[in-house]
Design brief:
By secondary structure, the chain is mainly alpha-helical. The protein has helices at 4-24, 42-52, 56-61, 72-75, 79-91, and strands at 63-64, 70-71. The chain has one domain. α1 (4-24) crosses α5 (79-91).
Length: 93
């Protein structure tokens, strides 16, 4: 499932992991219900909800061009996919 693009995004994330961790701390108070957002890890679900608000549920199920037209809900099942998702979240305006 992880394409070359996803692997490249994961490699970039590795260089920015500290920035993501700092960024994700902004969303520690965002409530996430169990199994919310397609069983995405809670820490990532908080960031998705914090960044996208009511659009979060749609976003995790949609094929995202920046993620090689794959769904977030599928990508988070692999280490590289999870890293790619985190990188995209960090880069969102």
């Amino acid at each position: 499932m992880d394409t070359d693009k996803i692997k490249e995004l994961a490699r970039i994330y590795d260089t920015m992991e500290k920035q993501y961790k700092k960024f994700s701390q902004l969303f520690t108070d965002v409530p996430v219900e169990k199994n919310e957002l397609c069983e995405i890890p809670a820490e990532v679900a908080r960031v998705v909800k914090g960044v996208l608000g009511v659009q979060a549920e749609d976003w995790v199920r949609r094929e995202i061009p920046a993620l090689d037209f794959q769904c977030v809900s599928d990508l988070v099942k692999t280490e590289d996919g999870l890293k790619a998702v985190k990188l995209i979240l960090l880069r969102m305006p």
